[in-house]
Design brief:
This protein has 19 helices and no strands. It is mainly α. The radius of gyration is 22 Å and the shape is globular.
Length: 424
């Protein structure tokens, strides 16, 4: 009994550490996270009790789809020429295989899930404050402006950190808006911090996600909670904030304006490196590669090489010189694994979404929708910052106990317990 409690505490403690350190990719975070995930796996193996673990798995169909998706990447080595690149891709995506086993067989209950999410929020807050202090230091002592976009986002690409902050913001809003939640009321101070930092990061989809989050929150206050004054005031502040940011921040205005012009323009300057303009070109090239390898794709290791070849053939020098991938997770999977992998990927998104709806896991629904949106402009499963984040929260939230509205109501135990098979 003591050994089981010890393994359970280690399981929880390591999960909290992973949640805290997720925002610190550039600061040695990936290396530390790799160690922590290895320890989490080792603890799971040493705990044993595999027969009961496997019988305890909820949502076995979705679990099998998660595993099959990774195994299809392994099989994709068979029709890849560049085996070395394929093996590296498998290493990057290994969390997609590992976390389903760990969290499906040892799920958290509501109370511990709440604590892990709180750790993630604290990690995001600490990272955001450090970035602002760093930018202030450079501005005061070196006269350099590092308060904007990539200059600000030292730990990872702005698109990824914006996604992290938006998820943390959603959690904080859940904490503040749920009627039965009485904890973390003082955490409201972090809401304006995250909003400001997301604006400064100026990821276009990060800004769109932020506007959707704030607009839905205002709508919830007005239509569900009947707090008309608060909802209308919040919506008005949001509108004024958008106008103010676009008017008084030339850098953000130029990014938004360039994106609008790139999407509406028919000009296809293939030397461009502006993010929106180059995406239009590489999405077209990706579709050409997909049409040549429709069913099983180019293979796990050859997707980047085939895209580079297509960029070169079509004279897309901007994307070729920057060695860009598809910058769209859906297209990237179609390029690598064809429609076979794409259908599995869609099942990985939409089956959990239906489960989240049926079990009233509304925070989990927000996570899936946020990921589905962020998969559009970024190949987020091609980097550790995207894979670890997605696999960790997706599996932890999916396989947790049914929570309903009471996402913050403690349960009796922090992991599901089951009778020994021999004693049943």
């Amino acid at each position: 009994m003591f050994a089981r409690q010890l393994h359970s505490r280690i399981h929880f403690f390591l999960s909290c550490l992973i949640a805290i350190l997720l925002p610190f990719k550039q600061f040695g975070g990936v290396q530390i996270l790799t160690i922590l995930i290895s320890l989490l796996c080792l603890n799971w193996l040493l705990e044993g009790d595999f027969r009961n673990k496997f019988q305890a798995i909820r949502h076995k169909l979705v679990f099998c789809i998660f595993i099959l998706f990774y195994l299809l990447h392994v099989a994709g080595l068979a029709w890849s020429v560049d085996k070395q690149a394929g093996v590296f891709d498998l290493q990057v995506k290994f969390s997609l295989f590992l976390f389903p086993w760990i969290f499906a067989t040892r799920p958290f209950n509501t109370e511990k899930l709440d604590q892990i999410l709180s750790c993630f929020v604290l990690g995001c807050a600490f990272a955001a404050v450090l970035l602002l202090l760093r930018a202030t230091y450079f501005y005061v002592f070196a006269g350099e402006n590092k308060f904007f976009y990539e200059q600000l986002s030292f730990f990872m690409h702005p698109s990824y950190f914006s996604m992290y902050l938006n998820l943390a913001l959603i959690y904080l809003l859940f904490c503040q808006l749920k009627k039965e939640n009485t904890r973390r009321g003082h955490w409201w101070i972090l809401i304006p911090l995250f909003v400001v930092v997301v604006i400064l990061l100026s990821s276009k989809l990060g800004l769109i996600s932020l506007l959707l989050i704030l607009a839905l929150t205002a709508g919830y206050l007005i239509f569900a909670r009947k707090k008309y004054l608060l909802g209308i005031a919040g919506g008005g502040i949001m509108v004024l904030g958008v106008i103010g940011v676009l008017k008084f921040s030339p850098a953000i205005y130029n990014r938004v304006n360039n994106a609008v012009q790139a999407m509406s323009s028919d000009n296809s300057d293939k030397t461009k490196t502006e993010s929106t303009a180059v995406r239009k070109l590489i999405w077209g090239a990706s579709r050409d590669v997909i049409s040549e390898h429709p069913f099983f794709g180019t293979g796990t290791g050859d997707s980047k090489a085939m895209l580079m070849q297509k960029y070169k053939q079509e004279g897309i020098t901007g994307a070729y010189n920057k060695n860009l991938n598809s910058h769209n997770a859906y297209l990237q999977i179609l390029v690598s694994l064809g429609f076979t992998g794409f259908l599995l990927f869609l099942a990985m998104l939409f089956l959990p979404l239906t489960i989240a709806w049926s079990e009233r896991k509304y925070f989990f629904m927000c996570f899936i929708l946020l990921m589905a949106l962020n998969f559009i402009p970024e190949s987020m499963l091609e980097t550790q910052a995207g894979v670890m984040y997605y696999a960790f929260f997706n599996c932890m939230l999916l396989f947790s106990e049914k929570t309903g509205y009471g996402l913050y109501v403690p349960q009796q135990a922090w992991f599901s317990t089951h009778k020994l098979v021999a004693g049943m």
